[in-house]
Specification:
This protein is mainly α. It is 76% helix and 0% strand.
Length: 190
């Protein structure tokens, strides 16, 4: 019975991801999500009390999958620059492989629909990256800018590279993508 519940919940989250990535939050009614997931509308409310709760649940799921992928080969013992390049390239690779998740994250990462608790949970999942930035700062490898600005420069550029690769007519080759990631490091290093 538990497996059937998990299957329905997984189908619900996948349908939500697909529809919201294509149509946005307001363009996707619960009835359409239920139809795509092949479940009743009432079943959605067994798992999530509201559409906002569904979005927050999906956000956590997507962020969790991203974190698992990004940190699977990461070690805190690696040199800072090597770690930084590897993490950013892994983020880009993940989004290239999962463009719907990229679109969803772009829409909702800074949305008022994402609760403070959800945002904090997402940050907790990326604690190894935060520790890396702190270590880089302590080793005086980064420019003397506020950490929030360093993060914005690094991850904003990373998302822009993923966007370029996913949606560009002419895809950059792997070597060019590597150079792009190196340029992100150059933008924030001392």
């Amino acid at each position: 019975m538990q497996e059937k519940i998990q299957d329905k919940k997984a189908a619900l989250l996948q349908a939500t991801l697909e529809l919201i990535s294509e149509q946005g939050f307001h363009g996707t009614p619960m009835s359409q999500i239920a139809q795509k997931a092949n479940i009743g509308v009432g079943t959605i409310y067994r798992y999530f009390p509201s559409k906002e709760d569904l979005i927050n649940g999906l956000y956590i799921q997507v962020k969790s999958r991203l974190a698992q992928f990004v940190f699977k080969n990461y070690s805190e013992n690696m040199p800072v620059r090597k770690s930084f390049i590897m993490l950013l390239r892994t983020i880009i690779d993940y989004f290239i492989e999962n463009p719907m998740e990229f679109l969803f994250m772009e829409q909702y990462a800074n949305s008022p629909l994402i609760t403070v608790a959800t945002r904090q949970e997402g940050l907790r999942m990326f604690e190894p990256a935060n520790k890396l930035f702190i270590r880089a700062k302590e080793e005086t490898l980064l420019k003397d800018l506020p950490m929030e600005m360093i993060n914005t420069l690094a991850f904003g550029a990373t998302k822009a590279l993923a966007n370029l690769y996913i949606f560009s007519e002419v895809k950059p080759d792997s070597a060019t993508l590597e150079e792009g990631v190196e340029a992100i490091w150059d933008a924030i290093k001392r």
